[in-house]
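Bumping my old thread because nobody answered last time. Still need a sequence for this structure:
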């Protein structure tokens, strides 16, 4: 079993990454939303930090900078981590590839039911998956998430709370 401790308002939980088939990625209501490991993941918040990926996966997967139109990385009221929400702007992040099924399951458990998987296409035409918010719009601030502020004020505690 892999223990994933999520930070902030999330509780610690345990997942068994070795059991049974998973439902389709389109089944966003299920805690096990992955039928097979998708090819690429768009990350835009805490998963941009190598320290967080290392804490969760015991390695830092390959990633390349990218942009997706029609979304923004928004500040979530009362939380240090961001949400990806539909918008008339663009979201900057990274596409990470080479994740194994066990790693996808760890990330899926880390993101939990607070997020849904969405299939996106980057501005350069790459298809990827991203975890987007399932929160009511009134919980999303008008401001964009500040990565530097997160790094300066929350990253160390976030990493400590994310250790696998």
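Sorry it took so long. Here it is:
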């Amino acid at each position: 079993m892999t223990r994933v401790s999520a930070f902030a308002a999330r509780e610690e939980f345990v997942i068994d990454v070795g059991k049974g088939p998973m439902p389709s990625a389109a089944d966003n209501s299920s805690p096990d939303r992955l039928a097979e490991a998708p090819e690429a993941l768009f990350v835009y918040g805490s998963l941009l930090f190598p320290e967080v990926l290392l804490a969760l996966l015991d390695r830092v997967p390959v990633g390349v900078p990218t942009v997706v139109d029609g979304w923004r990385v928004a500040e979530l009221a009362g939380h240090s981590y961001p949400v990806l929400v539909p918008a008339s702007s663009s979201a900057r992040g990274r596409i990470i590839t080479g994740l194994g099924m066990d790693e996808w399951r760890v990330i899926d458990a880390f993101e939990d039911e607070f997020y849904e998987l969405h299939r996106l296409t980057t501005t350069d035409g790459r298809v990827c998956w991203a975890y987007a918010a399932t929160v009511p719009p009134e919980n999303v601030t008008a401001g964009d998430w500040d990565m530097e502020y997160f790094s300066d004020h929350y990253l160390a505690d976030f990493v400590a709370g994310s250790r696998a």
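The domain at 2-162 is CATH 3.10.490.10 (Hypothetical upf0131 protein ytfp). Let me know if any region looks off to you.
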